Amino acid sequence: MRELGLSYQSAWFMTHRIRLVMAQEPLASMLGGENQVFEIDETFIGGKKRNNRHRNPRKEAGKKVAVMTLIDREGGKAVTRVVPNVRKKTLQTFAKPIVDKSATIVTDAHLSYEGLQDHFAAHHAVHHSKHYVRAVILHTNFAESYHSLLKRGLVGAFHHVSERHFPRYLSEFELRWNTRKMTDGERAECVIKATEGKWLTYKPLVTH
């Protein structure tokens, strides 16, 4: 807003148009393959209602959003989605179509992940109350690091993100992670090329 001399609304609209093209295209095929390891983790993002110091706090204040992330250890690719809850059916229905059945899955001890070994080549659970890392590959450090960066980025830069627009912010952080080995110029070129055929008008953003 300051650098371009725009109104807040115009700057906000522009950044959402950029986030729209940052969204990764639907996967043409499943991620992973034989002997590849994937980490799956879930987290809740959002502050506590008592910490909201606004004079007129919105009804969303204090509401937490559930997020699930899958990370490919081999290729380093992350896929993150907002999920309605962290129940077993929800999390497994999200994960199974994305990762190839021949992959090995590593999660924490959340009961919602029980039974994944029946769908994938193997499933290992890390009990954080007993072990931080069970073995060289038996940890969820990458997924937890991703969630830590996501939370710090959202709180530090945006302070509050509405649940309605949350998926676009996830697209931004997902692309940042997946292009972290690119230069800033290469990343910008990647995003510019992705604008073709995509359009977002202001009305859908503000219409409830």
Chain-wise SSE layout:
Elements: H1 8-22, E1 37-45, E2 65-72, E3 78-83, H2 88-95, E4 104-108, E5 122-126, H3 141-158, H4 166-178, H5 184-193, H6 202-206
Helix pairs in contact: 1-4, 3-4
General description of the model:
- The protein starts with 7 loop residues before the first helix and ends with a helix.
- The longest helix is centred in the last third of the chain and has 18 residues.
- The model has no long low-confidence stretch (mean pLDDT 84).
- It is an alpha/beta fold.
- It has one domain: Ribonuclease H-like superfamily/Ribonuclease H (Nucleotidyltransferase, domain 5, 2-Layer Sandwich).
- It is built from 6 helices and 5 strands.
Provide a short characterization of the protein structure.
The chain is built from 6 helices and 5 strands; from the N terminus they run αβββαββαααα. With 208 residues, it is α/β, with parallel strands linked by helices. It has one domain: Ribonuclease H-like superfamily/Ribonuclease H (Nucleotidyltransferase, domain 5, 2-Layer Sandwich), CATH 3.30.420.10.
